[in-house]
Amino acid sequence: MITPAYVQKMAAYNAWMNKAIYEAAESLDDERRRQDCGAFFGSIHGTLNHLLWGDQIWMHRFADTPAPASPGIPGSTGQYETFTDLKRERFAFDKVIADWAQRVDQDWLDGTLDWYSSSAGRDMSSPRAMLVTHMFNHQTHHRGQVHCLLTHLGAKTPTTDLPFMP
Description:
Number of helices: 6
Strand order of the largest sheet: 1-2
Low-confidence stretches: none
């Protein structure tokens, strides 16, 4: 389904896009970043918090990194109160993802992951390759929402196309 090279490419894309999105978000004041714009997670700040939470929960399952501070999705939007803290944790965690991606091998990707999902309220089991793909898809989906909110609020937004990654 996917290869270690794919995982490494998507980890690099994740870091590149997060840097660009956070730079665009910094051009807005905190009030505008926290403005409820009707997105699924309300605001830019809430969506960025949820996005980091999602990465943290999947990496906890994949690589036994520390679990996120919030035990579930409802609290995911407020894990980091300040934009400074959120940005610091985001960039630090992007390094965690990139380091993990360098160590992933095909045997691990071809295996199955068993975990308990608090969202579903039950034990789950799925192919790891599909779940890794889901993690990267989840990142892209929510960054797309943030990109839309940034554009709506007047921030200069970056190109998001993978072929243009340096």
